[in-house]
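Predict the structure of tRNA (Cytidine(32)/uridine(32)-2'-O)-methyltransferase.
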Amino acid sequence: MLDNIRIVLVNTHHPGNIGSAARAMKNMGITRLYLVQPKNFPSFEASQRASSASDVLKDAVVVDTLADALEGCSLVCGTTARLRSVKWPQVDGRECGELIHTESEQHEVALVFGRERSGLSNDELELCQTLVNITTGEAYSSLNLGQAVQVLCYEILMASRKNTVEPVAQEPVDEKDTLATNDQLEGMYNHYMDALTDLNFFGKRNPEHIMRKLRCLYGRARPTQREVQIMRGILSYAQGRRTQTPEK
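Done. Here is the predicted structure for tRNA (Cytidine(32)/uridine(32)-2'-O)-methyltransferase.
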């Protein structure tokens, strides 16, 4: 459902781009806008560029961190202007539309756009489970923020129009068996970092490299809330055993 989809803009510099993004969203039936530390908002220029989408701007949620904007989401797709060497799943715009539509039928989903000049940082991309790259012509691949939002929101809308079959009624699912949210996953990653540090696991290994591998692993696995609880229970047990074992 389109109501379960958030468009997240990170550190947008030009207020006009926020307005253009809001207009692009409303054109495609998506209305939930989150702004992470915008440089200038609210502003007259943003309202002017939004045209009849002023309601999207009025209801926009302004937050201090990307993690705040992603709270409660089970899937986060981050846009990137270039294909990355990291092992995150990477999709094109059409695949992104299908993925977000399917996920949003039952869960909260976020589509994240970075800064106009530099995009999303590596740390911000690590909060995403999937990276999105919009296919363009080879001669000139640059899209402005409003264009990028328009393209991907269009793909989401078209995916929703293709899948209009009435869903089959299903048995109620225990909340703990639903997919873990982004903030629950981040809590688990922080727990991993603390536990592995306590256990002296890292040694000469690079903690950032190992944690990135764990993020990739769980990003592919898409664990449930119950599975995250189990993993955190194992980590807590290992930490407890460590404190009970005398140093030799």
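Residues 225-244 form the longest helix (20 residues).
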